[in-house]
Amino acid sequence: KDSTRKMSFLFGTPATISIDFKDQKNLKQVSYENESGQVENLFLFPGEAPLAGTVHVKLNKKKKLEHLGVKIELLGHIELLYDRGNPYEMLQLVKELEPAGEITGSKSYSFEFGNCPKNYETYNGHNVRLRYFLRVKITRHMAYDITKTLDFAVQNVQPDPEINNSIKMEVGIEDCLHIEFEYNKCKYHLDDVVVGKIFFLLVRIKIKYMEIVIIRRESTGSGPNTYSESENIARFEIMDGAPVRGESIPIRLFLTPYNLTPTMKNVHNKFTVKYYLNLVLVDEEDRRYFKQQEIILRRKRITGKKKSLKNSLESKKK
């Protein structure tokens, strides 16, 4: 097979494969970074949606292509940064498009994966990637297989929680600072607004400013092999200057502008994604006092945008 690979490098691939989704021009798209760090637009599907489309095989110069079968796979992988070459396969469905035989000229195959629940969202983090993709494979005898992959994105809408309690906490430094803060709820959707208040009961230090930081904490592995990495997604200044005792500071933080994902807990025992609101006070000597509180995020609607005709024409010109 090594010599065959060298020959294929010299003389080119005997066939070109392309994949089109059904009603592709009306599908929404979202942008994700691929493993090379490049941003690409992926077609977007709700988790419960079927996948259907057409596979096109076009022969390059050759008049016929003998093969041992043509198949298409629907795959869901979890790829950890430290073990990228050994992905965890959480979903695999296979459809045979054609049994062993030969292809002459160009040929198209229809495919459909009807009952294929995709329970987890596409996720692209620092140390882990959850991806869905289609893979077409033409298996050949005494020659390398011809393959084509096409990634797509998945988003899942979650219902409103039946119970959504407010968050009330006290934090302080003995004889120096005593505050109470309150958030209107503990579970938010990605287009939500965090509404709250901060009450200053005792202030004996000179506070310069106060801010709320949205933190994403990504944990991979399990047990003693768990590795966590935190990232500050957004900073929001809620006060500039020294407060006085009895003062109340309102909080109103819109989540829509920020690159947030739903909370993901223990996905196949491989990774977890959590979000926190971190209340930070900084005094005039630049000492920092903070209190973190976890919040649960969910998706209320499918996002993404349809590709405009103008954009598609521009990309064709390129």
Written description of the protein model:
It is a single chain. The chain has helices spanning 2-11, 309-317, and strands at 15-21, 28-33, 39-46, 51-59, 64-80, 88-104, 106-113, 123-124, 128-139, 146-155, 167-173, 177-183, 187-189, 193-203, 207-220, 227-240, 248-254, 264-267, 271-283, 288-298, 305-306. It is mainly beta. The strands form four sheets. Strands 2, 3, 5, 6, 8, 9, 10 and 21 form an eight-stranded mixed sheet that branches. It starts with a helix and ends with a helix. Residues 1-10 and 309-318 have low confidence and may be disordered.
Ranges where pLDDT stays below 50 over 5 or more residues in a row are 1-10, 309-318
Mean pLDDT, to the nearest integer, reads: 87
Rg over C-alpha atoms, rounded to the nearest angstrom: 26 Å
What proportion strand? over 45%
Spell out the helices and strands N to C.
Answer: HEEEEEEEEEEEEEEEEEEEEEH
- Looking at the structure, what is the overall shape? elongated
Number of strands: 21
Number of distinct helices? 2
Structural class designation: mainly beta
Give the N-to-C terminal Cα separation. Answer: 36 Å
Largest sheet: 8 strands, mixed
